[in-house]
From TrEMBL:
Listed InterPro entries: AKR, Aldo/ket_reductase_CS, NAD(P)_OxRdtase_dom_sf, NADP_OxRdtase_dom
Keywords recorded for this protein, A-Z: NADP, Oxidoreductase
Species, as recorded: Streptococcus oriscaviae
Family: Belongs to the aldo/keto reductase family.
Domain NADP-dependent oxidoreductase: 17-257
Superkingdom field: Bacteria
Name of the protein in question: Aldo/keto reductase
High-level lineage: Bacteria, Bacillati, Bacillota, Bacilli, Lactobacillales
Length: 284
């Protein structure tokens, strides 16, 4: 396993397993147990995923010492306030059945971000969270949060894949000591990523799969990546990226795939913000 050192000195695994859209508790527990057995040590869940309890049970069942694992969960916008964040974190900790989490993120840049962040800062200072960070924040939102609060985020987790490479965002975050982490690292299987000619050619050269090439590309860029699968063979494949290295020519070829295309909603458009706010009963 490769690790990155966050801006507060905490070491974070570079390759992680995510559990988005695995709400079934039994299935989630089984796939997390399998991921841990294979060698993953970073597990990423969230309050809104509805599977924190399953992750906690899988961790307990694995028998792996807690200090060897890196557990991430996230605060949803419904609890974005100082008091709301404190209560929601306590509930997440209870569901995970843990004394602390390694990384706690604000899931979206919508709502009372500052109130929630002040709560995270206090929980961090109390030792209940080893590092605090954000998810889906644009650089200007990162700057605003960092400049007007005490703790600079350790991580920003964003959509990032070969079709949405975000080199400018990575450079900005790196200049501020903030680690970039990806979600949808395999582009959610869209754009025919598993049969893309450039990725296939590179994969065949190393006797690997295109999924492994995409994750290795992120590793070599210094990006923490998350992948997800409910199939044991694919869980293992996505972890098997440490025994080869892409050449500079490979990296340059992959760079040509960038189209700055989001596969999901643009969370920063006014309509998307309004949609998220609508879940909280907010509207113009």
């Amino acid at each position: 396993m490769h690790y990155t050192r966050l801006n507060n000195g905490v070491e974070m695994p570079m390759v992680g397993f995510g559990v988005f859209q695995i709400p079934d508790q039994d299935q989630c527990q089984k796939v997390v147990e399998e991921a841990l057995r294979i060698g993953y040590r970073l597990i990423d869940t969230a309050q809104v995923y509805g599977n924190e309890e399953a992750v906690g049970r899988a961790v307990k069942a694995s028998g792996i010492p807690r200090e060897e694992l890196f557990i991430t969960t996230k605060l949803w916008i419904s609890d974005y306030s100082y008091e709301g964040a404190k209560a929601a974190f306590a509930e997440s900790l209870k569901k995970l059945d843990m004394d602390y989490v390694d990384l706690y993120l604000l899931h979206q840049p919508v709502g009372d971000v500052f109130g929630a962040w002040r709560a995270l800062e206090e929980l961090y200072q109390e030792g209940k969270i080893r590092a605090i960070g954000i998810s889906n924040f644009m650089p200007e939102q990162v700057a605003n949060l960092a400049l007007f609060n005490q703790v600079v985020p350790a991580v920003n987790q964003v959509e990032l894949h070969v079709f949405h490479q975000k080199e400018d965002q990575q450079a900005y975050l790196a200049s501020k000591g903030i680690q970039l982490e990806s979600w949808a690292g395999l582009a959610a299987g869209q754009f025919n990523v598993f049969t893309n000619p450039i990725l296939l050619e590179i994969a065949e050269k190393y006797n690997k799969k295109t999924s492994q090439v995409m994750l290795r590309w992120q590793l070599q860029r210094g990006i923490v990546s998350l992948s997800k699968s409910a199939t044991p063979s694919r869980i293992a494949e996505n972890f098997d990226i440490f025994d080869f290295e892409l050449s500079p020519e490979d990296m340059a070829q992959i760079a040509t795939l960038n189209s700055n295309t989001t596969l999901f909603d643009d969370y920063h458009s006014p309509s998307s913000v309004e949609t998220l706010a609508g879940f909280l009963g907010k509207s113009f």
